[in-house]
Design goal:
heterodimer, A: alpha/beta, Rossmann fold, 6-stranded mixed sheet, 9 helices, 25% strand, globular, B: 218 residues, MetI-like fold, 8 helices, binds adenosine-5'-triphosphate, binds magnesium ion, transmembrane helix (chain B), ArtM/GltK/GlnP/TcyL/YhdX-like (chain B), transport (chain B)
């Protein structure tokens, strides 16, 4: 599904991703953990081409998205992204947020896009908020709308960058619930999170990053209970 | 001190015509200036430094020199070069528009840059092109933020259009100076002119603050 080969990314002289190799299978849920500044966000942003990469290759279903010949916008449509800060469009209602890309990018008729948008809102439990503006929603509701908005483009894979870190503790659960549901339906997902419970329950694989490298990867239970690397042990002892 | 209301009354029709011209000049200045300003602002934001340079020089020139000098240059230099003769009203409109465009270009740029980076990223991650993201996501939000500083620029233009009197465009101050010259009076013409400007600017501020409040509640 996704194959990352020798991925490197520098900001000026600061090499943030040093040599990332990672393969993600269809329907797999990969959880990425690691200390602040280890390059987790940068990795997701590279997969979504929000950052230009310095070296290596990223293949999505066999297509090299780093190849200049490929249409980047087309590639981005295949990858949905959910941000820590939601990034809803504040001048548009909830349903308009969801309809915008299908209508403008895919030329879906407005009626079809609206019907599909309402269906997605039902799925995240926010049908009654369709006509509300984002400013009137709670953090958890905003994030659920952001998930619905990303799903409206029918992506093949969803990237989540700390989707619950900006939320009040009491609404974290409702967002995780939606993500669990998605995973159950077979969505391929890469999730950066500090929610170890979620990683354990939903993750097929956990990746520990540090200093721009993937230091260790394994299934959740062995990785959490029996980490092989010293750096993983040190990190886990702090967060668990 | 005898304050001569009779000469104010005598000049009232001229002052009224002058007021209409003042409104016309500043309205033309803000409208043309906005269109030009958007283009110049966009030009300055182009990534290619070579393309951005002329726009950047334009802004530096018009913001870095007095409007008075610009009006004289345009009236006695630029307009005659194109028309063969000069025309005070045309020169005043041109000078005010070009000057406003430089300020509005910066208002526009600041408006766009004030929008959170995450908005562009979210739009791009949904597959929108840079142009689509600008048009549907960034610009509508930026325009809303531009309205207060644009209103402010409008008020500045109303006041600065008084400089057009020196090139004999018959706006408020032109008639004020005519009145002062005819009767050797100071207070009557200039206080009257000041009062008219105050009425104009206070009314405009009032309209603008209502507009802003309306936008905020949306
Ligand atoms: N646009 C940028 N320009 C320059 N440096 C950047 C940029 N974005 C990230 N970095 C740097 O790259 C490094 C990795 O950042 P990244 O955001 O990927 O870390 P992270 O693992 O997501 O951390 P956190 O847990 O704090 O979100 C950091 O040192 C950061 O300062
Ligand atoms: Mg991060």
């Amino acid at each position: 599904m996704i194959k990352i080969q020798n991925l490197k990314k520098s900001f000026g002289t600061n090499e943030v991703l040093k040599d990332i190799n990672l393969t993600i299978k269809p329907q797999e849920v990969v959880v990425v953990i690691g200390p602040s500044g280890s390059g987790k966000s940068t990795l997701l942003r590279c997969i979504n081409l929000l950052e230009s990469i310095t070296g290596g290759h990223i293949y999505i279903e066999g297509k090299d998205i780093t190849d200049k010949k490929n249409n980047l916008n087309k590639m981005r449509e295949e990858v949905g992204m959910v941000f820590q800060q939601f990034n809803l469009f504040p001048h548009k209602t909830v349903i308009e947020n969801i309809m915008l890309a299908p209508v403008k990018v895919r030329n879906v008729p407005a009626e079809t896009a609206r019907a599909r948008g309402l269906e997605l809102l039902r799925k995240v439990g926010l049908e009654e908020k369709a006509e509300a503006y984002p400013s009137s929603l709670s953090g958890g509701q905003k994030q659920r709308v952001a998930i619905a908005r990303a799903l409206a483009m029918e992506p093949k894979i969803m990237l989540f960058d700390e989707p619950t870190s900006a939320l009040d503790p009491e609404v974290v659960g409702e967002v995780l619930e939606v993500m669990k549901q998605l995973a159950k339906e077979g969505m391929t997902m890469v999730v950066v999170t500090h929610e170890m419970g979620f990683a354990r329950e939903v993750g097929d694989r956990v990746i520990f990053m540090d200093g721009g490298y993937i230091v260790e990867e394994n299934e959740p239970i062995p990785l959490f209970e029996n980490p092989q690397q010293e750096r993983t042990q040190a990190f886990l002892s702090k967060v668990l | 001190m005898d304050f001569r209301f009779d000469i104010i009354a005598e000049y009232a029709p001229f002052l009224l015509k002058g007021t209409l011209l003042t409104i016309g000049l500043s309205l033309a200045g803000i409208l043309i200036g906005t269109v030009l300003g958007l283009l110049i602002g966009l030009g300055k934001m182009v990534n290619n430094k070579l393309i951005a340079l002329p726009f950047s020089l334009y802004i530096t020139f018009f913001r870095g020199t007095p409007l008075f000098v610009q009006i004289l240059l345009i009236h006695f230099g630029v307009v005659p070069a194109f028309l063969g003769h000069t025309n005070a009203v045309a020169a005043a409109i041109l000078a005010l528009s070009l000057n406003a465009a430089a300020y509005i270009a910066e208002i526009f740029r600041a408006g766009i840059q004030s929008i959170d980076r995450g908005q562009m990223e979210a739009a791009r991650s949904l597959g929108m092109t840079h142009g689509q993201a600008m048009r549907h996501v960034i610009l509508p939000q930026a325009f809303k933020r531009m309205i207060p500083p644009l209103g402010n620029e409008f008020i500045v233009l109303i006041k600065e259009s008084s400089l057009a009197a020196v090139i004999t465009a018959p706006e408020i101050m032109y008639w004020g100076r005519a009145m002062a010259g005819q009767y050797y009076k100071v207070w009557e013409p200039y206080l009257t002119a000041a009062l008219i400007y105050l009425i104009l600017t206070i009314s405009l501020s009032f309209i603008l603050s209502r507009l802003e409040r309306r936008l905020k509640t949306e």
